[in-house]
Amino acid sequence: MTLNLTIFAPPKNKNPMAPKKHFYLILILGSLAALGPFSIDMYLPGFVDIAQDLKTTESTVALSLSSFFIGISAGQLLYGPLLDKYGRKKPLYFGLVLYILSSFLCLAVDDVNQLIVLRFVQAIGSCATAVASVAMVRDLFSVEESPKVFASLMLVIAVSPMLAPTAGGYLIAALGWKYVFVFLGLMAVLILLASIFKLPESYKPDPNYSLKPKPILTSFFGVLKNPQFYTYALIGSVTFAGLFAYVASSPTVFMKIYAVSKTGYGWIFAILSVFFIGSSQVNSLLLKWFSSKKIINWALLAQCAVSAVFLVFACNDWLGLYSTIIFIALFLCCLGLINPNAAALSLAPFSKNAGSASALMGALQMGLGAFASVMVSLFSEHSVIPMPLVMTIAAFIALFALWMGKRFIKTEVEASADSTVMAH
Predict the structure, then answer these.
(1) Is residue 87 part of a domain?
(2) What does each C-alpha distance from 313 to 182, 207, 309, 388 come to in angstroms?
(3) Where are the membrane-spanning stretches (predicted)?
(4) Phi-psi region for residue 9, left (φ > 0), alpha (ψ -120 to 50) or beta?
(5) pLDDT at position 5
(6) DSSP label at 203?
(7) Are residues 275 and 188 part of one domain?
């Protein structure tokens, strides 16, 4: 599972720093970027154990994942203005302290509703690390150096979904699910200490920056009025909801229905992440011959076909463990082609307010993802059907949005070949 990171316009007080001379900076920024993905994926193998300990169902436990997505969605809109008004480090410290406190409070929960609330608070905290890491790359490195640093962060974000559930599976099998939150809390403590002592303040606070709702909302509304933005942002967000449906229901599907072990589930999740990440890399090659628009067209059609066949198999009880993995892998391959192109096309019309556009896109992705995960949790936890059902609905809604959106886009701005889009 990956996270969309808000893209900020380069600040005025640029202070270029050479990556080779400041390796520790890249290491700290990479750790900041990895905290969110680890927070999402590492506790997934413990869903069955959490449900048993808290005397509830796996579907209800999945609501703690939904609340995390809601927190991430809200946090992306919150931290952008705070980082510009108060500098980078103070909001970052606030977010990390909030994350640490909520992580350790998770050890004391005896009711699933407490876990759901604490996961929301934890998400608000972790969002500061994701947004601040991108902003500080823009601050600390020159235009020539920053793509290399962003590539390093993207590698960390890409590897996190492969490492987190696998490590979580072994940790839960050995010590129990609460130790995941011990690990995450200690991870955040180390990141906080590194940020205090090794991370410079990269942006001078701007006391004149307004936090009043009106100018912020005016900027967001200006973005939302652009047909190209709302068409492709909706396509990317709705298809991403299919990914969230998979993430939220996968512990139940694999560990309860198919009786896969905690460690086995971690490996399955890691392998499926490779398909998503791999197709995103293939997309970079395809862009040499095809436009983003054409890739989205064909990938959406393929995703609709895959999800529909997946649903037919599920309804007729034709699925087994391996066939389920294959269908999910194909769906994720399509998503890996759709998501980066939809993000690039939605941001293409903007230069001055690209930060607002990116924040809105990230909030929309996480908001719809939270909704999809809630929908999955409302269905029976003794069937695979909810997963392909939500995936199919998401794919066809995205295809309809593309068909309708073309009618309103008068002049389409193509995504530039060197545009930097970091996603999750």
Answers:
(1) yes
(2) 40, 59, 6, 9
(3) 22-40, 60-79, 91-110, 116-137, 149-173, 179-197, 229-247, 267-286, 295-313, 319-338, 359-379, 385-404
(4) beta
(5) 47
(6) S
(7) no
Asked if 233 contacts 360 with a C-beta cutoff of 8 angstroms, the reply is yes
Q: Are residues 166 and 198 in the same domain?
A: yes
Report how far residue 150's alpha carbon sits from residue 52's, in angstroms, rounded to the nearest whole number: 41
Q: Between helices 386-405 and 227-250, what is the axis angle to 10°?
A: 170
CB-based burial label for 281 (10 Å; 0-12, 13-18, 19+):
exposed
Is 424 part of any domain?
no
Give the end of a domain, one of 177, 211, 245.
Answer: 211
Q: Where are the alpha helices (DSSP H) in 225-320?
A: 227-250, 262-286, 292-315
Quote the CA–CA distance of 103 and 97 in Å, as a whole number: 10
Is the separation of the CB atoms in 16 and 142 below 8 Å? Answer: yes
Query: 50: domain range?
Result: 1-211
Asked if residue 106 lies in contact with residue 178, where contact means CB atoms within 8 angstroms, the answer is yes
pLDDT at residue 222, rounded to an integer: 75
Domain assignment present for residue 256? The answer is yes
Looking up tokens 């399509």 gives 334
Residue ranges of the alpha helices (H) in 141-206?
146-175, 178-198
Q: How far apart are CA 173 and CA 191, in angstroms?
A: 26
Is residue 205 located within the same domain as residue 72?
yes
Q: Which amino acid is at 223?
A: V
As averages over each run of 10 residues, the pLDDT of the chain (424 residues) reads 47 46 76 88 91 91 90 80 77 93 95 95 90 75 63 70 86 94 96 88 67 74 80 88 87 90 89 85 82 90 96 94 96 89 76 64 79 77 87 94 79 50 41
Tell me which of 191, 211, 231 is where a domain ends.
Answer: 211
Instruction: Answer yes or no: are the C-beta atoms of 372 and 245 closer than 8 Å.
Output: yes
Q: Residue 37: CA atoms inside 13 Å, Cβ hemisphere, count?
A: 30
Distance CA 213, CA 138 (A): 25
Sign of CA dihedral 95, 28, 199, 131: negative
191 close to 28: Cβ distance less than 8 angstroms: yes
Domain count, the chain: 2
| Pick from 418, 360, 355, 361: nearest CA to 10 | 355
Asked if residue 163 and residue 41 are part of one domain, the reply reads yes
Find tokens 């180390």 and name the residue.
Answer: 190
Task: Tell me, yes or no, whether 328 and 344 share the same domain.
Answer: yes
Q: Which residue has the tokens 């890739």?
A: 295
Q: What is the pLDDT of residue 18?
A: 46
377 located within any domain: yes
Residues 376 and 250 occupy one common structural domain: yes
**What pLDDT shows up at residue 208?**
67
- 242 shares its domain with 160: no
